[in-house]
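job 3f2a | input accepted
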Amino acid sequence: METKLFTELRPLYETTKENPHVIRLKMRMKDAIDSDVLRHAVDITMRRYPYLCVELTKKDGQYIFIDNDRPVVITNSLRGVDLNSPEANYHVIAFVYEDDWLVLDVFHGITDGTGSYEVLKTLLYYYCTERYNVALSTNGVRLEEDNIRPEEWEEPIAHRKDLPTPEKAQQSNALNLVAAAGLENDKQNTVYSIVIDESEYMEFVKGNGGSPTTMTVLLLSRAISRMYPDAEQVIRMMVCVNQRNALKVPMARHSLVGGASLEYNDNISSLPISKQAGIFREMLKKEIRDEEVLKGVAAQRALYNMILSKETDQERTELAKMLGDVTIRVITSTVSYVGRTDFNGAERYIRDFRTLTSPPPSGLGVEIAAVGGRFTLDFIQTFSSDIYVNAFLKELEENNIRFELQEVSRLEIPDFKHPW
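job 3f2a | predicted structure (420 res):
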């Protein structure tokens, strides 16, 4: 089967060696990984997701996915393999293990965090049932014997006739964190992993009328505002939004991520945190209504078509870079949260969970995961300085939120090899 690229286009042309668009879900398990059981679990899992077993190739000047019958690679080293390379059997997905670490690597163009979690749920179901000889619930788990619906693999945007007309919004410049702190020469992608007890954080979040997403955005905004009280530019945070519900394609494998902007400005900076949380909650509620999300989808579709209109890979890459430069100008930071994930009993075998991907163009992004009774906030940066992490931790301290700075490490995710 051949599949023309569409939603995959922008990540494909934005990908560079310094900024690979790869999602890495990294778990530390209760015990050392059994490689034979993992091989069996991966093989079953990938039979459930045949539309992810593909090779990227070119036909008539356009890139397409074609079926890839080679085994999906499993590597016994956290280095992993570069995706879409001979070492990966030209797959855009791969698995990794080392000691008690288990890792899923996947090209961000073919799916997003929501889609990656579905694959991980399937893998953990098959791995843990065999590894620990237990019966786990299959509720919400996609299984090998499922009848795979076309909705999972059919392109959900390109041919839609019912999308609203996108609005032409002119956004003012946002505060740039790299420039504000003079970090232009600190070019070392770094991850700060912060762990917070889920029940404690939720008690604070609910007590102030927020959500995990809006409260994390608010605390980071407050921290930045305290650092730069006289900044002329607005603090504008981007919240990643799952577009599947608005598109009525909840099973789609595609990378369907939109954005909602939350601005922290002088009008709310003097208010108590509960009032601020309520304002952010209402802002986000308005921006995630189906009509607003679909306007964003329509704008994205126009960008994908613009990329397709260019004749050469060089022209398309230059356009993608230009779009990234616009993002740098209007966004201060990005926060992404898939939502609390219940791995149907398998999470009792997970000791640690990390969500890694390339940092956003603005320089700082926060990936939130809620697994095993803990929130893990991965601060992913284009720089090594801890200036913004420390400011955020100070906000946690002042609000009596206990935390653990679990790890500081160089960002390590595999490359995605371009086909050109």
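job 3f2a | The chain has a mean pLDDT of 96.
job 3f2a | closed
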